Amino acid sequence: MAEVVVYGAWASPLSKRVEIALKLKGVKYDIIEEDMSNPSLWLQNYSPILKTVPVLIHEGDPVVAPNVILEYIDETWKGNPIFPQNPKDRARARFWIKFIDEKCVPAVMLACWGRQMVQQMATQEAYNCLKALEDELRGKKFFGGNNVGIVDIAAIFIALWLGVIEEINGVKLLMHEQFPLLSRWVNDILSCSIIQETLPPRDQLISYLRTHNPNSFPQGTTIESSGKTKIPNNAEIPIVAFLPNLQRSLIEDFIKDPNFSTGFNNREMAYFTPSSSEKSPPIPYSYLYTIHGAIRAHQETIKSPKSEVDSMLA
């Protein structure tokens, strides 16, 4: 086995971030593909808390969490730095990574795949996020300047996954007329040889995401005589999570609150109905986008302090 091993998933932009960084550094690695609907015991052993990809194994020791892995890669292999060398520029890059992960991608996902009540709100937020990225590109070929850098790696979701999701859902957020610099960046980043050889084929990604569309009910979902939608325990759609800082325990508390479900129709309730068992199973990450928007749209139905909710979802 190679000195460096990546546990990843071919359709995950978070996994691809790690692979791109390693290739830019010239680091050879082995890739072990995980089925996130049935994670291996090896993955659970290496990442007992997150239990998700990517995981980097270096000299037998695991490094988890995608952005932590990226910093580890840059600090361990000094050649071809992906983070800026200037501390202020490095701090600015970290800001944009956080912005992409916690603001831009969730807004885009909700704008494309959210329920109607959330979609309208998220579309404007997605536009604002894309506009911020557009402004950051002024005078530069890449976010990293003349070369691909850490922010370009973090934004790889915008380059490929966004267009795929737009095509699947028949929506268009990234329009050339409104975002000429960002559109040009997409073409430039996808033309890089390392990016091309690392990202999944577009047609395969379209086919995969069509069958893992979070607007579909999980298999085994039923509607009870009361009209309440019931999801089978541990039902999960293996779509990548893009809200790394949401605390699952707090989300579960929201869902357990009987007031939380007020005002949702049967189809929407599929995302909010807790387990009938005494202990609710972990909430599938693929549902958190709709929950994220619902919390904002219906905060008055949640008994938790608004300041705490706002600090988590802002």
What does this structure look like?
- Residues 86-209 form the GST C-terminal domain.
- One of its GO terms (molecular function) is glutathione transferase activity.
- Keywords: Transferase.
- This protein is an alpha+beta fold and 314 residues long.
- The chain folds into three domains: 4-76, Glutaredoxin (3-Layer(aba) Sandwich), CATH 3.40.30.10; 87-211, Glutathione S-transferase Yfyf (Class Pi), Chain A, domain 2 (Up-down Bundle); 222-313, no CATH class.
- 50% of the residues lie in helices and 7% in strands.
- The chain is built from 14 helices and six strands.
- The strands form two sheets. Strands 2-1-3-4 form a four-stranded mixed beta sheet, covered by helices on one side.
- The longest helix is centred in the N-terminal third of the chain and has 27 residues, at 87-113.
- It is globular.
- The N and C termini lie far apart (43 Å).
Keywords, please?
single chain; 314 residues; alpha+beta; Glutaredoxin; Glutathione S-transferase Yfyf (Class Pi), Chain A, domain 2; 3 domains; 4-stranded mixed beta sheet; two-stranded antiparallel sheet; 14 helices; 7% strand
Outline the fold blueprint.
Blueprint: E1 4-8, H1 13-25, E2 30-33, H2 41-46, E3 55-58, E4 61-64, H3 66-76, H4 87-113, H5 116-136, H6 150-154, H7 156-169, H8 180-191, H9 193-198, H10 202-211, E5 222-223, E6 229-230, H11 248-256, H12 266-269, H13 288-297, H14 306-313
Parallel strand pairs: 1-2
Antiparallel strand pairs: 1-3, 3-4, 5-6
